[in-house]
Design goal:
CATH architecture of the domain at 395-623: Roll
Strand content: 15-25%
Number of strands: 23
Structural class: alpha+beta
CATH topology of the domain at 395-623: Dipeptide-binding Protein, domain 3
CATH superfamily of the domain at 395-623: Dipeptide-binding Protein, Domain 3
Number of helices: 24
Strand order of the largest sheet: 2-12-10-9
Shape: globular
Radius of gyration: 25 Å
Distance between the termini: 46 Å
Length: 658
Amino acid sequence: MAFLSGCGGSGTTSKEQESVEGGNVEETGEETGGEEVDEEGSDSGGEITSFKEAPMLAEQVEKGELPPVEERLPEEPLIYVEGTEVPVEDLPKLEIGKYGGTLRIVNPGSPGGGEWWAISREPLLNQPGFGTPGEKPVGNVLKDFEMSEDGKVFTFYMRKGMKWSDGQPVTTEDVRFAYEDVLLNKELTPAFPTWLANRDGTPCELEIVDEYTFRIKFKEPYALFPYTLSLHWQTWDSGPLLQPSHYMKKFHIKYTPLEELKPLLEENGLGENEWYRLYTLYTWSGGALEPTRVGCPTLAPYVLVDMPSAQVAILKRNPYYWKVDAAGNQLPYIDEIRADSVTTVDMLPMKIMGGEVDLARQAVSITEISLYKENEAKGGYRVIPLKFHCPIPITFNYSNPDEGWREIVWDQRFRQALNLAINRDEIIDAVYHGFASPSRISPSEYDPEKANQLLDEMGLDKRDSEGWRLRPDGKRMEIIIETSAPATDFIPMIELLVEYWKNIGIYTTMQQVESALLSSRVQANETQVIVSSWMDLPVAQGNPYMLEWVFLSDRYKVSEGFYRWYTRGAGAEGAIEPPESLRAVFDLYREMRASTNLEEIGTHMEKWEKAMHDSLFLIVPVEDVMIPLIVNQKIKNVPESGFQIMANFAGEVLFFDE
């Protein structure tokens, strides 16, 4: 199993290899002509001597609608070079791009979806790709950080002069507001995030040092914290630690009287005391595209400017984006993103093959790769087989109110039997055309006979007149697998699971459910088995930094009752404490986050992976899935190896080469 090892980083400052020293800008008065960008903006020592911008922004500067680019950038903008977002080995030599063009993305269900969500990724700290074991994070939104020797106190340094997309400064007031007025407000945040809390559940402590420096303090060591800030989606801008306070105060009852909020409450169909829901509607909140978020300030490369319908979103370049290329050209290169949606995932291939999509990643699968390859020339795109970072897990609802079900699913023998009945070789051949491997996080043995024996041993040995197993309470042993089918490989894999479990006497069916309805059913504890999401498994990526996000705080994966127990405490309403056989995955993570150095993290990670493997908390049928990246053949700076999602992470440096 994969695990971490490396050197501790206590008391040291992260390497800021990509920043520019303030005060070194030389105003030349030159402007970028046409769509070309300047390739001569840095001297032989790599120092930026002038900054350039997109023609559409230069026109606004000339009209007096925007300040000059030097005034829009922070004193120390981040210089995007090889390895900034995408590992060097996965990207051909980074080209200085060209300005212009519209990037068309299409997603099932809602516009943007996973494509935009990853393009908008701007964590407070950063690690190229998914991080390299043993390496500390570097600056991103935040310029730098320091960790105390005991791993309890973290000092963060912001980029002086950084601005939100509306031109307002980014300062520690945005941090104070996010902490005091959002995180500590019970209406906006009923449960304080566990990844920001002390082990006893109390909030971390915030200290504002000055306009651009702040500290986060914990009661115990938390060496995992900087890594969490580099990969946890909730640490992106407008997350729990940084919000555009000047804008969001307009929707906060502490700063805007209820009387002034009433028209907006009525417009959005909310009661007069539901200001907290209004606030949520208008905050950027992880980048979800909604009409109420048009114009919401962001630090992402693109700003939502219009949603002409519920199926279409238009995003334009952020004029205050704080990254430049190695020649001093302000990013991003592409002017605009048009995000469309299709009703169901099976409609996406026609859009792609018809040449209507410039970048497709999350909702495509290897199942259609031959079809996509046959239509490359016609559709004007390239098909690049890359690794998918998220295998599909089979997850169980351990807190379903049906006591008979709970007694069965809590029995490890039941989960072992379901796992033994899965023919992984057949899934790999039939669904993934050989481009996958048996899972490592779950045992991969295929033995239906042994599965039947385990079910008999645990009391599921009686059958009805049709041959289906009966539960101890006399009811037929049934499993309903629910899915929203977010990609095209879900349905064929689930169809095989249905047959595998029927073959061991369990009456199994599949239901395809719209994603919002499925989410509601999960929170209402109405599900049994779900195969409807992906999981960034540490075993696949070599680090534990996303466990809090992708596993421990995900109702889909841990079930509602365990989720409430973990995030809100044993006494919370609806909280269910996991049995000892399942609790280890929570306890071992808590021990891991309390590490003071990377050696400790690695030791705990190895134990956690073993606990997941042995307990079968969830079942992962296959891993190492290859998946096609579909990209317009004119787009450059596209990753050619590694993980497919890196194409989205490199969104600000993609460009059209006509």
